Amino acid sequence: GAVVSQHPSRVICKSGTSVKIECRSLDFQATTMFWYRQFPKQSLMLMATSNEGSKATYEQGVEKDKFLINHASLTLSTLTVTSAHPEDSSFYICSAESGYGYTFGSGTRLTVV
Amino acid sequence: DQQVKQNSPSLSVQEGRISILNCDYTNSMFDYFLWYKKYPAEGPTFLISISSIKDKNEDGRFTVFLNKSAKHLSLHIVPSQPGDSAVYFCAASARGATNELIFGTGTLLAVQP
């Protein structure tokens, strides 16, 4: 089956620093990858859609300059949280569509202190 | 190896009938299970959850059943409505309701009028 590897699984960073989260499709090519943020009550909010070789499409209300998305290859998409603040602390998860359906990464728990 | 499996990629049901979506898991440490619903171009939204101390949870037309010995859960929608047509994901957590989720690959439900 399709696997999306996401890391780090947990990261603690200081306020003002940047954190990069990677998602790799291990056994399929993902031309499109989705980035989500988990909010209380378990709802996931779609932040942006990254497309290989082109600019990401951000959802309304998501700051492009704060959440930098790069999809440089068919197997790698990255989300960089720049100048992180405590309110950015959350669970971030990526997903991609493969021949098996939507495959999610294992998520990244970001804590900004 | 996938810890959460949804073996049916799609399901078609007539309006008014019951929809049954299935999910199997392998990790006996999972103690909280959730179902999400996803429309195209949107992030998954939380639908219903169940703790491992229960075997059934009901919310309106949606009921989730958990069979711990079989490591199996199912989502029943009755009566099914055309607006229920979406991709349904089951997810599991090993450390309670607010922690990281492991997702299945989803089942596309089509409710025919």
Could you give a short description of this structure?
The complex is a heterodimer of chains A (about 110) and B (about 110). Chain A has about 110 residues and is mainly β.
Instruction: Indicate the radius of gyration of chain A in whole angstroms.
Output: 13 Å
> Helical residue percent of chain B?
under 10%
Average pLDDT confidence of chain A is 89
Structural class of chain A: mainly beta
- The 3D shape of chain A can be described as globular
Q: Unreliable stretches of chain B, pLDDT < 50, 5 or more residues?
A: none
Order of helices and strands of chain B: EEEEEEEEEEE
**Portion in beta strands of chain A:** over 45%
Element order of chain A: H for helix, E for strand: EEEEEEEEEEE
Broad structural category of chain B: mainly beta
Rg result of chain B: 13 Å
> Count of DSSP E strands of chain B?
11
Mean pLDDT of chain B: 90
Can you summarize the main beta sheet of chain A?
7 strands, mixed
How many DSSP helices of chain B? 0
The largest inter-chain interface, given as chain pair and residues per side, is:
A-B, 24 and 26 residues
Shape by Cα distribution of chain B: globular
Distance between the termini of chain A: 37 Å
Which runs of chain A of at least 5 residues are low in confidence (pLDDT < 50)?
A: none
Measured by DSSP, the beta-strand proportion of chain B falls in over 45%
What oligomeric state best describes the polypeptide chains here?
A: heterodimer
